[in-house]
Amino acid sequence: MAQFHCRIRIGLPPGMDPEVRADYLERDRLHLAGLRENGALVHDWRAAGEQLEFLVLESADSGELHELLAGRPLFPFLRVEVTALRSPVL
Predict the structure, then answer these.
(1) N or C terminus of the chain: which is more exposed, having fewer CB within 10 Å?
(2) Which residues contact 53 (CB under 8 A, 6 or more apart)?
(3) Res. 68 pLDDT band, cuts 50 70 90
(4) Any idea which fold 2-85 has?
């Protein structure tokens, strides 16, 4: 398994209906909770005052990582930068 650092900027449209926005955010929160439960989401942080997340995800390869990210309800509104992490050398 490999770990990937994902810097994710969320860009929901400013004029989005508040109910639709709340639905997207709730479904996305549940999706991330599922990733956490199955061990794919290792760490997550949010930047204060911004729609910015920092996630460490674990997957077999970049294809599986793409599936994990593309499964997020917010995926169409995300700008994602990925950095592959390597294990520390002892």
Answers:
(1) C
(2) 6, 7, 8, 10, 44, 45, 46, 47
(3) very high
(4) Alpha-Beta Plaits (3.30.70)
Q: How many CB atoms lie within 10 A of CB 75?
A: 14
Closest CA to 68 of 77, 83, 52, 56: 56
Residue whose pair of structure tokens reads 């760490």 in the numeric block: 43
User: Which residue type, as a one-letter code, is found at position 53?
Assistant: E
Integer-rounded Cα radius of gyration of the chain:
14
Give the pLDDT score at 89: 60
Q: Which residues contact 12 (CB under 8 A, 6 or more apart)?
A: 21, 24, 51, 74, 77
Specify burial of residue 56 (Cβ count, 10 A radius: 0-12, 13-18, 19+): middle
pTM as predicted: 0.89
Other Cβ atoms closer than 10 A to 34: 12
